[in-house]
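For consistency, the fold was encoded as tokens, which produced the following:
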Amino acid sequence: MLLLTFIRHISYISDGKRKDLVEKYLEHYKDNIVPLLDGLSLSVIHNDANDYNIIVQDKVLGTSIDQKIVGIIDFGDMMYTYTIAELAITIAYAMLNKRDPLRVGMQIVKGFYQSYKISELEFDVLYWLIIIRLCTSVSNSAYQSFNAPENEYLQISSGPAWVVLEKLSEVHPRVARNLFRESCGLEPDPTNNIVVDWLSSNTKEFFSIVDINLQSDLVHVFDLRLTSSLLANIPKNASVEYFSEILEKDLTEHNCKIGIGRYNEVRMIYASENYCSGDTVLSEKRNVHLGIDIFLEAGSNIYTPIEGTVHSFRNNDIELDYGPTIILQHKICDDTYFYTLYGHLELSSLNDLYVGKVFQKGDLLAKIGNYPINGNWPPHVHFQIMTDMLDREG
């Protein structure tokens, strides 16, 4: 009944762009979330948990004040419904007027989880229940404003909800789900353990992606950390040629032919503005390396480690990006996949590719590119394993 009322009220939203946003949310909710609702736990919920309906006790501790919730009021909206809706409603209220609404949601989920163990299905629908609560709020406000246009408060009160909806539209729903899970101390992606177990059980089945045995004495692991003595004296604006010479010298000193850049390594390069776009939980900001780098001569062959199909490919030609890149999709079982990324390739490696093209284990996939085409890096392949492409490509 409430959803039907919400649907009728959408027509009263006067801003076309905002109306489109709400309709897009509603369409996804009806098609993908409603079929899941019958699997959710049910209970009596308060249904209106917000800062006006809680009683807080202040306790002075020296120069600070310790606040503790000691009660709640206003039980007029109580109903028997999905238990997880209580959390969604609380978060929807708490996100209003917050610069980083998703981070606020994470803190509330963390606290809620300490008393109620959220199920996998409840994690899957939580983001969408928050969205629908906010959509209901702005739609009802539009309806009330239509009937009482002289009441300016109605427009003002819906403003914060619109801001949150527009901010949340910038984040993929599975990113929100994964952040909520992580805040509870869980593996962010629920498929991660399945993929890791499968990879661990099949290590002997993989074909080497390069011609040289990576476990031989010819391999040297570079230290590319922020604290690395190898990079200590590199000028801030050093050329790629200069950087390449340093790596080549390090290989020669260790009598090796192939260099490895480590996974999960904090690197100086990520301090550049290319990798920093804000300080909210939604910002694309990182300072660690997310794959393995294999440094070989430009033109060296790259092979497919296991059967896969082309998910996407692209020339990411922004300075210090991946350059020509190929992403393969690998199937473990029904509905469970993982993806391998190969970056900094020769541009010709993208020739004759198409989405869905099948590569067998050991097939020649690509060749290592040279600078500047490869993103302007010393010649190497960036190899990365991912469990979710989040509907992105290339």
Remarks:
- The chain has a mean pLDDT of 91.
- The two ends are 43 Å apart (CA to CA).
